[in-house]
């Protein structure tokens, strides 16, 4: 598990044979597969973890033209230049949200 004190974002990591599974937010799942020599790209994995913990991950929910209000997680983008992405993109999804920690809403200003 990886945790950031400032953002309060949590990432779950699981070693599954020759894969590392990274789970964050509502539906972000990345699978890192070991190279043929059995080694993982530790630098790349560290970069992804750092980006998520610092709030540079966006999750997409639902389908843009869906009339049934199906709003489960359907895609993600990680990093400023979206080097890591999966599922639907921003134009295909119904809405998007930045991955934030559980207390992020406490810092919001709610207008009446």
UniProtKB/TrEMBL annotation:
<protein>
    <submittedName>
        <fullName>Uncharacterized protein</fullName>
    </submittedName>
</protein>
